[in-house]
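Q: Convert this sequence to structure tokens.
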Amino acid sequence: MFATSFLRLVYRHAAKPFFFRRDPEDVHDAVSWIGERVGRFAFLRRLTAFFLRYQDAVLVQDVAGIRFPNPIGLTAGFDKNARLTGIMPDVGFGFEEIGSVTGEPCEGNPRPRLWRLPKSQGLVVYYGLKNDGCEAISARLRRQAFRIPIGTSVARTNLPAFAGVEEGIADYAKAFRAFADIGEYFAVNVSCPNTCGGEPFTDPVRLEKLLTALDAIPTKKPVFLKIPVDAPFEETRRLMEVAAAHRVQGFILSNLTKKRDRPEIVREEIAGLDKGGVSGRPTFAVGNEQLSLAYQAFKHRFVFIASGGVFTAEDAYEKIRRGASLVQLATGMIFEGPQLIGELNRGLAALLRRDGYRSVAEAVGAAHR
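A:
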């Protein structure tokens, strides 16, 4: 506890002010470079775990046939090229989602493409699925042994050549096939708001075509679908009804918000930033509402992973009580520091025991009972 409190103070008063005076993409790239190299050395991994990781039997659970040491995961979009799989277990994450990975290498949208919203506790993200492509990333991971479950987020290459429906499906299928036997689960991302051609597979007819094509690719891995947060629930319901006829086992709720008028967004911070989606706190309340409705409608069919706006153990616990078996984050760690992951797990364990639960699974959906 002392080490965690000390690290929080150091991050808040020294590291964060230093980072936040610099370009956010440059900072992200530098931190990722350091994290990748620390992850190569056993001594440095053990040292990281000593200061950051928190383990507790009450946090362990099986979800979709996968054993998770805790329910806090790194969301897709942070480790785009799967460079950090060696260190993230020692930071304290219970799982990690890499990517999104596309069929072809993609440079993404032009810079600048990442902005901070300190007052709103969010980021404006306009990367446009920058990644090395499925062939390079799968070749890199095929040689690795993972210590926590790794999910692969797959998406459509952000280039005009793949904007058509058939071309897009073929691109998804290429990325999906490349990871059929790597990692523990798939996340099919149909909701990136920053790509040419928009989000064609949030249409039920097109989604049916995409999932039918992916069904034909052999894999033992469970499949999750990542969908938008801004859609009315009736649209979300239609997507879930389509998915129910396929081998989709769950949903990731959800992606960035494109709505600039959300009450959590401070207007002067986002003025002039008319492109990109917003992460972090502005997605928390709307994501919770979507999660509650989805869980109540489909709890007997799907597993839910919640993503968006988690900054405290109470935030994560609320998502679990609303129906999430697992919780993802990235923005919270950027704002609060890497010690946040251990704090979340420690706090979750205390909240579960306070309420008489013996496991995370017992608390899932408790708000609706």
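The chain has 14 helices and 13 strands.
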